[in-house]
Amino acid sequence: MFIDEVRIRVKAGDGGNGCLAFRREKYVPRGGPSGGDGGRGGDVVFVASEHHNTLLHFRFNPEHTAERGRHGEGSNRTGRDGASIDVPVPVGTLVYDDETGELLHDFTRAGDRFIVAHGGKGGRGNQHFATPTHQAPTEHEPGHPGEDKRLQLKLKLLADVGLVGFPNAGKSTLISRISAARPKIADYPFTTLEPNLGVVSVGDETFVVADIPGLIEGAHLGHGLGVQFLRHIERTRLLVHLVDVSETTGRDPVEDFRVVMEELKNFSPDLVKKPMFLVASKVDVAQDPERMERLRSLAAERQLPFFEISSVTGQGIEGLKYDLAQFLAKPVEEGIIEEIKEGT
Ligand SMILES: Nc1nc2c(ncn2[C@@H]2O[C@H](COP(=O)(O)OP(=O)(O)OP(=O)(O)O)[C@@H](O)[C@H]2O)c(=O)[nH]1
Ligand SMILES: [Mg+2]
């Protein structure tokens, strides 16, 4: 199962209580207050890990608790601090406060650490409350509670290339042709219900392609499967827009292109600014060359690289793979995956 969203609870350790104690010593008639402080509670820390690529481990373990601080003791002994815990999350995880919906952190690179729940401070022992006129204080504080939060984690797949297009345009067929991914393929719309990732190798280069469910007019209003899946391609460097040019669609390819662009724009204006390859698919069964030509001129007008492919006969596939690899081999500013110069 592809898991990209989980709800979990994190609880940092409570602080230890401050101690109430007085020094009692032979031949020392009036020992002062000597209650030590409580230790700090441990933090719950999320760490971005390259070894995890799903949120599956949270399904089996939806609660993460750090150790509490020990209580203070007599003779001014401070309690030991509670141990913090590190919880691995995949790179690409977004952490939200489940109650307020606020985005707390976005893990963009491996090794990134973020404290999701802070441990409570230890309470002060009575040693701190003595004053010249108040020499036998009995005040002492309880430890502060550690933060207790409900979080929602969402994972954005970190693919390099996102495939977009109408349902049935041939997106899953293409990913199965260029990678080892074997998504379900069928001659009806909305075959793909959740994103698939495929790793493509071209010579020494490899890159990740995401196949997502198809878009239809009004997807941003919830029509079809909606646009929720688009967040998985928000960080890709390039979109491959597949348009079925065969007559079987009963629609106009140029209009299909426009509809999908409109849905992308409605989801996020940044998405339509991404570099895009325009790909005419199913050319093996396209009868009317005029449909293709109109799509080709649209590509020229918008300065989008244009490809004609058939995942059935293999026409144009190698060329497309090669050009994708070429495009992705160009350097991007370090670490900034989402900002790529426009108009490439
Ligand atoms: N003739 C021909 N048929 C194709 C080609 N590519 C895909 N198809 C067929 O088109 C149908 C839809 O293909 P899919 O790959 O499932 O389409 P999709 O874009 O993933 O569709 P959704 O997942 O529903 O969005 C299937 O019956 C495929 O066999 C092609 O290049 N030529
Ligand atoms: Mg599909």
Task: Explain what you see.
With 344 residues, the chain is an alpha/beta fold. 16% of the residues lie in helices and 23% in strands. It contains five helices and 14 strands. It has helices spanning 56-60, 171-178, 253-267, 289-301, 317-329, and strands at residues 5-11, 44-49, 63-65, 85-90, 93-97, 103-106, 113-117, 148-155, 161-165, 196-202, 205-211, 238-244, 276-281, 306-308. A six-stranded mixed sheet has the order 10-11-9-12-13-14, with helices on both faces. The chain is rod-shaped. It starts with a strand and ends in a 15-residue tail after the last helix. Mean pLDDT is 89; it is low at 334-344. Magnesium ion binds at residues 171-172, 183, 191-192, 211.
